[in-house]
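hey so u asked for the seq, here:
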Amino acid sequence: MDYDKIGKFICLRRKALGYTQEELGLKVGVTNKAVSKWENGLGCPDISILEPLAKILKVNVIELLKGQDYDDNLFSKEETSNFIIEMFKISNLKTKEKIKKIVSSLIISFVTILTVFLIILNVLNMVYVNKYEKFDIVSNNQ
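ran it, structure tokens below
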């Protein structure tokens, strides 16, 4: 996927329709900074907003993801199908990466909390033992 090409396409369509980045962002539920990132090729719209974004820009999703207007010579049915499958694979990989990061964070948090808990228990045990265990040096010497 060519983020620069997609971004330039979004920018051209937005300007042709007379929208500012702010107005386009409001229509699809993102910030004007997100629209700016797309237009500068620093990212791509999330898959969940591709359809509404395409409707607002008056293009289809394939045109949006290809970063160009539809042309019968450019978009065969097989190429379109392969492209959609590729997009879902990319989206699926990003979701898996996010899940891995979340699980890793949860494991690290759990281990940290468990370690702190065990240290606190150890300290409390030492205080308890020292408080109630009295050494009678005199009785041991007899």
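The mean pLDDT is 83. The CA atoms of residues 125 and 131 lie 10 Å apart.
lmk if thats what u needed
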